Amino acid sequence: MQYRRLGSSGLQLSALSFGAWVTFGGQIGRDEARNLIAAAYDNGINFFDNAEVYAKGEAEKVMGDVIADLRLPRDGYCVSSKVFFGAVDNPGPTQRGLSRKHVAEACHAALRRLRVDHLDLYFCHRPDLDTPIEETVGAMDALIRQGKVLYWGTSEWSATQIREAARIARAHHLHGPSMEQTQYNLLHRQRVELEYAPLYSELGLGTTIWSPLASGLLTGKYNDGVAAESRLGHKDNAWLQRMVIGDEASRRLDRARRFTALAVELGEKPSQLAIAWCLRNPHVSTVMLGASHTSQLLENLGALELVDRHDEAVWNRLEAITAE
Ligand code: NDP
């Protein structure tokens, strides 16, 4: 495993990390979740990502139980949560968003579910236009001063919003955001490569990137249709299928097919090639993997060996072939 600093902070995260979205508390059972966390940790993964909204808190419970059961040393791994969407069906106005009240209460609930006394990383899962950024920055700073959170960050905030949070923090001597959690893969590049570009040196911003395989699309598993036992074939995920595959005009499936054909031509596994491409970006602090089977996770870990295997011309070809 390689380890990378989270932006300009001193925290070293494994270049590949592991997240619970859709799978924990939903698609997979506890035994598979346990196998996945054990395999991840045994292979050097030291960051596990979660959120209050994943399976309405159930994903955090499963992760907390499994980590406790495996007796992972608390100083040997990092765990995160994210606040914004709430952890109940139809959350009321105080049960969601980024008010001081919900940020604090969601943190306490995540600590209980994950069975830890601090979160290593805590994210504002989306911007909240109904709460002043000053209030959210103050709430995050307070959690850090109380020792309940070590690093806070944002997820899918605009560069302008992140810069504003950092400015407020600096002006009031508060802890500012250390990282952004954003989507990054061969089919979705703009934010990480263009919008956030000035923030890496300006703020020392780290990135924990999600959906490196575009929910599995870049493995080629959807090239010939959507199998019922896959993420996009799951009965509750019709919305996600629309989002990931897009409509005819978006040509995302075509781009994925061209990508998998090139991977095969190169003699590489598409999953590993797609993840290795993400790892090549030095502004990516960690690539968060998802998996419904341990075999997928073990395959994806092989991406680390591909990063330096091909020359620039190959990577350029890959980018050209997947361009919109
Ligand atoms: P990926 O894009 O890597 O998708 C993972 C899924 O793809 C797996 O669950 C599996 O689905 C399939 N897959 C993975 N590897 C293989 C393989 N080798 N062969 C075949 N199929 C494979 O990552 P995620 O979308 O899961 O994102 C990673 C993490 O990022 C999440 O768990 C979550 O923690 C975080 N995240 C954060 C978001 C945010 O808004 N901040 C949003 C989304 C995710 P299956 O087998 O079911 O088809």
From TrEMBL:
Spans through the membrane: none
Keywords: NADP, Oxidoreductase
Family (UniProt): Belongs to the shaker potassium channel beta subunit family.
Record protein name field: Aldo/keto reductase
Domain NADP-dependent oxidoreductase: 16-321
InterPro entries: K_chnl_volt-dep_bsu_KCNAB-rel, NAD(P)_OxRdtase_dom_sf, NADP_OxRdtase_dom
